[in-house]
């Protein structure tokens, strides 16, 4: 897998993951070219086509699914199974749907870290890791539990500051009785 792109019906990218290095401006051009190629196709044609000139032309395929307002596009080399990738897209979307309880475009915008976490359970470094949705979901839930337990540690400094403020230290210092100290002049006599 060379890249995974998700964009809406207007071509706005909602998730981009490139597994091959491209300069930032070239990535933007690839996204625009891919949107142009995919969006102008009818809904009743097959869901794979030759890659655009910027992403590798005949050597690569664009495999996509269009759900409501979003296009899910996987750019793969020509040796990949088109039907296998279509199934992988379906697993990805169903996993997102279960994780967000009816996933929508706003979930991809406001929970980009969770979406990337789910994607990383599915694909890493351009290689498919897992296709079993229940395995992906269980690993994602384990990660969520771990983050929640670590959140308790990250709030500890704030709780400590709050406890110190509640002690009213400035008043306690004023009220503290200090023993009389000899004057410095008497020490040098």
UniProtKB/TrEMBL annotation:
Topology term for the membrane: Peripheral membrane protein
Gene Ontology cellular-component terms listed: AP-3 adaptor complex; cytoplasmic vesicle membrane; Golgi apparatus
Pfam family, one: Clat_adaptor_s
Coiled-coil segments on the chain, per record: none
AP complex mu/sigma subunit domain sequence ranges: 1-146
Keywords: Cytoplasmic vesicle, Golgi apparatus, Membrane, Protein transport, Transport
Family: Belongs to the adaptor complexes small subunit family.
Protein's job: Part of the AP-3 complex, an adaptor-related complex which is not clathrin-associated. The complex is associated with the Golgi region as well as more peripheral structures. It facilitates the budding of vesicles from the Golgi membrane and may be directly involved in trafficking to lysosomes. In concert with the BLOC-1 complex, AP-3 is required to target cargos into vesicles assembled at cell bodies for delivery into neurites and nerve terminals.
PANTHER family: ADAPTOR COMPLEXES SMALL SUBUNIT FAMILY (PTHR11753)
Protein name (Swiss-Prot/TrEMBL): AP complex mu/sigma subunit domain-containing protein
